[in-house]
């Protein structure tokens, strides 16, 4: 797991991003093209966290650059949120996949890989200190709010970070990021919308969850 020498004690996203390029805290770096760190302004009032980079993100080095990212951009606009004022990242910064012929198929990161990458997410949260944090999907929700949290039961509900900080894996060890009165909203990952049999209904629900964010900013 990255130690204090690997994850700089800084609020500079530039320094954090440069350090993360050399992270070998888990095995994912061996096959991934590159580290895909978060992107957006450091003073962003809104931060969104997903699961892991996909094939496009791995190749381009930018989070949410593929089909799920394009859907997220459209949903944010439909929810009245300014995409340019958001910081986006993932719980895990390297692409996990298996091959089917020439195709690289996404795989969910395991608990060890999520834990290894947790110090980077903690550092990003401490640097950005968003007013609202949106967790996209079950992996991001478990990383931020704990494994007992269920997106299906509490999606779209504004939650106070302070009420969940004690049970958050981000608080291990040595305390979590100084998020103060940050609000947290959980929703599905945009890739789940793309996979849905009723994509229109899934998209409408996704946008409805995101609309809960605007009054909090």
UniProtKB/TrEMBL annotation:
<dbReference type="InterPro" id="IPR036895">
    <property type="entry name" value="Uracil-DNA_glycosylase-like_sf"/>
</dbReference>
<dbReference type="GO" id="GO:0006281">
    <property type="term" value="P:DNA repair"/>
</dbReference>
<dbReference type="GO" id="GO:0051539">
    <property type="term" value="F:4 iron, 4 sulfur cluster binding"/>
</dbReference>
<protein>
    <recommendedName>
        <fullName>Type-4 uracil-DNA glycosylase</fullName>
    </recommendedName>
</protein>
<dbReference type="GO" id="GO:0046872">
    <property type="term" value="F:metal ion binding"/>
</dbReference>
<keyword id="KW-0408">Iron</keyword>
<dbReference type="InterPro" id="IPR005273">
    <property type="entry name" value="Ura-DNA_glyco_family4"/>
</dbReference>
<dbReference type="InterPro" id="IPR005122">
    <property type="entry name" value="Uracil-DNA_glycosylase-like"/>
</dbReference>
<comment type="similarity">
    <text>Belongs to the uracil-DNA glycosylase (UDG) superfamily. Type 4 (UDGa) family.</text>
</comment>
<keyword id="KW-0378">Hydrolase</keyword>
<keyword id="KW-0234">DNA repair</keyword>
<feature type="domain" description="Uracil-DNA glycosylase-like">
    <location>
        <begin position="37"/>
        <end position="211"/>
    </location>
</feature>
<keyword id="KW-0004">4Fe-4S</keyword>
<dbReference type="Pfam" id="PF03167">
    <property type="entry name" value="UDG"/>
</dbReference>
<dbReference type="GO" id="GO:0097506">
    <property type="term" value="F:deaminated base DNA N-glycosylase activity"/>
</dbReference>
<dbReference type="InterPro" id="IPR051536">
    <property type="entry name" value="UDG_Type-4/5"/>
</dbReference>
<keyword id="KW-0227">DNA damage</keyword>
<keyword id="KW-0411">Iron-sulfur</keyword>
<keyword id="KW-0479">Metal-binding</keyword>
């Amino acid at each position: 797991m990255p130690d204090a020498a690997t994850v700089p004690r800084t609020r500079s996203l530039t320094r954090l991003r440069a350090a993360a390029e050399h992270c070998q805290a888990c095995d994912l770096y061996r096959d991934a093209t590159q580290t895909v760190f978060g992107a957006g302004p450091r003073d962003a009032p809104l931060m969104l966290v997903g699961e892991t980079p996909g094939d496009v993100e791995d190749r381009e080095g930018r989070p949410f650059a593929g089909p799920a990212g394009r859907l997220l951009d459209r949903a944010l606009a439909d929810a009245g949120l300014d995409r340019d004022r958001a910081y986006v990242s993932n719980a895990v910064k390297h692409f996990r996949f298996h091959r089917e012929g020439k195709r690289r198929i996404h795989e969910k990161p395991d608990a060890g890989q999520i834990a290894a990458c947790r110090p980077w997410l903690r550092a990003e949260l401490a640097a950005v200190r968003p007013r609202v944090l949106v967790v996209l999907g079950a992996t991001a929700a478990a990383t931020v709010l704990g494994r007992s949290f269920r997106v299906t039961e509490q999606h779209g509900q504004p939650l106070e970070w302070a009420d969940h900080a004690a049970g958050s894996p981000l608080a291990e060890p040595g305390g979590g990021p100084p998020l103060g009165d940050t609000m947290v909203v959980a929703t599905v990952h945009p890739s789940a919308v793309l996979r849905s049999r009723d994509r229109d209904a899934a998209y409408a629900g996704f946008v409805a969850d995101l609309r809960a964010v605007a009054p909090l900013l």
